[in-house]
Specification:
This protein has 7 helices and no strands.
């Protein structure tokens, strides 16, 4: 099981990607070095409260939303693997993936 610090980082990364932001874009909007954001997202660094507030504001979520981990605890290896595979995939291909998944789970 991942540590809370690692799950927080995964959650921030998940929310950042859902907003369509790069690490550079988010780090610039919150005023931290992109390397620091990277360390937060991989669970090597824990952000100060002020940084958490800035992250939440930039991602347009409440701070408590950064700590919603239940969906991450199920099978993070699979979720992260699929997420990594889909990074940078065109919208057209993503639509096909969604159609396949819907068909598969029916």
């Amino acid at each position: 099981m991942k540590t809370a610090k690692a799950m927080l980082g995964t959650r921030i990364k998940e929310l950042r990607k859902a907003k369509g932001l790069s690490q550079d874009q988010l780090s610039e909007s919150i005023g931290i070095d992109p390397k620091h954001l990277s360390r937060i997202e991989v669970g090597k660094s824990y952000p100060y409260m002020e940084t958490l507030e800035s992250i939440a504001n930039s991602l347009e979520v409440e701070i408590k939303d950064l700590f919603e981990f239940k969906h991450l605890e199920k099978d993070t290896a699979t979720v992260e693997g699929v997420s990594a595979m889909l990074t940078g995939v065109s919208v057209e291909k993503l639509r096909l993936v969604v159609k396949f998944i819907r068909t598969f789970i029916k």
